Amino acid sequence: MNLPAGYNEKLYNLLDDVHKMKFSEPQKAIELANFVYVQALKSADETLEAMSLYALGVCNELFANYPQAMKFLSEAIKIAQKTGEKRIMGDALNCVGVINDNLNNYANALKSYFKALKIYEEEKENKKIAIVLSNIGLIYTNIKDYKNALKFYSQALDIAEDENDNESLLVTNINIGLTHTLLGNYDESLKFLNDALNLALNRNDKRRASIALDHIAETNIQINNIPEAYRLFEESRKLKDSLDDKRGLVKIFGTVGQLKLVENNIEEAKENLEKALAIATELGMKRSIHELHKSLSEAYEKVNDAENALAHLKIAYRKEMELLKEEAELRAKNISTQLEIEQAQKEAEIQRLKNIELGQALEDVKKLNVKLKELNDEKNEFMAIAVHDLKNPLQNILSTARIIKRSSDLPKDEQDEYTANIISQTDRMFNIIKKLLDHNAIDQGEMKTRIAETEVNSLCRELVQNFREEAERKKLSLVLQDSLTDININTDKVILYEILQNLVSNAIKFSGEYKSIILKITDDDKKVNIEVIDQGPGFSEQDKKKMFNKFARLSAKPTGNEHSTGLGLSIVKKLCELIEASLKLESDEGNGSKFIITLKKNDK
After folding, report:
1. For residue range 323-344, what is the model confidence (pLDDT) as tens digits?
2. Confidence of residue 415 (pLDDT cuts 50, 70, 90)
3. What pLDDT does residue 97 have?
4. How many angstroms separate the first and last alpha carbons of the chain?
5. Under 8 Å CB-to-CB from 203, ≥6 apart: which residues?
6. Where residue 362 falls among pLDDT bands split at 50, 70, 90?
7. What is the DSSP string of 172-219?
8. Which domains does the chain show, CATH number per domain?
């Protein structure tokens, strides 16, 4: 399409306007960027197209529309690689890093930042180098490595001051102020944050001004200057309203609501918390939704409104379970984050090596990569195990919550009973997570077990009770054949429960309707046997050879479309070894299976 002479130059100027107004008038900026993008497609100018895609990515990031932002930025990077526009590529990679940082994907954020840093160093873009260094420092702050965080911030400040770059100074001062608040250095924090606020106001950067105001308010809360915190939050709220910064409003309304709750100003507390909850629900902010429901439950409890207090508490529990899986994944990622940081720093340093040390440095990186791959594989395995073992206690909690939901007028004693069950299962889940976080120590024989006297019959009764509803849903009969007398053994109760839980869960998962599953306990003077007997498909000879391998895929399939990771029996074998229990299988293909756990009895 033929466009008027000089038209494209005007479009480039419009993109400059987009970046000038993105923090003060973000909605107008995104509309203008979209207009330029459409015109770029008409003119077949790929450089203009890449620049407008980057602008759209940045604007969508400001609105926390991360999937759309990533889509635009990926396209910008692809076109920039094709056309050799390294600066556009660097800018887009830096924004990708910001998005991953916001989503707590620190390892991915770091990779993007160091790729951007390499490009900026090649292009001698000192101002942008300062921004990226400050962003890297923020990752260190997020993982609580404050010493390294301040080191990167110092480098960024040096460059920003040399370049007289107010934008870099603004970003870095905010990050340094936040870090000092976390360290408890409140005077230092306020100094940097007030400098940042003045810079933002002078630049009419409303977004960063509101961020600085939030951090200053939070620091005032720490030093118990609550009236000043309220005043600062109100200033910030007005800015966020003008920017349509909904995520920022959730933070302000939620924090103010908490403060009012502490002051026993319940009506204002509920008003602010409800506002925050409505926006958080619209945006799908799971953690905020969980925390706000807990706060609202507390508010209603203070005015003796038990019905609303319980309703919000139930929702909070459900949201907490949803978050638990995500938090476990984040912990696993953080296992490898530190090594990835070291690797990325090493790679960046290699680019600057121009002498005979280059060969040795490359060899060091190869070794580090091997170590990192091993850790990454281990982390992935850990995550699969963690998710697998969290399913069962989550199911127990869900079953209890459903009972509560179905019963509109539960007596107080029954409410207490069901609530106690939820708390018990939650505690058990946290115990599972703690065990699995130390999974490396299992292989090394260093995992600490908590050996204590355990009564086998009561443990098995608890297990059968917790699986009763799940079995009934599949029309299965779950039967306990316990001993007539108490059987006490010295073992780790949590680990033994997990062993039996995995076996019973598998039996339910692979059994067809109207079958029986039996949990049988027998003993003699020296040992106790716990048998899990089912009428499922059994194990073929080929299955028996690989059944205890990690991620093993056996011939049998779940009968109710349940998910199977192939980890259950591997976990059972490893946990049996930990508590010195023997594990035996009796099974023929097509004729069910019997798992026998044998443990030593207490010496008399």
Report:
1. 676 555 544 444 444 444 445 4
2. confident
3. 93
4. 94
5. 166, 167, 170
6. low
7. HHHHHHHHHHHHT-HHHHHHHHHHHHHHHHHTT-HHHHHHHHHHHHHH
8. 8-124 (1.25.40.10), 125-244 (1.25.40.10), 249-314 (1.25.40.10), 365-448 (1.10.287.130), 454-600 (3.30.565.10)
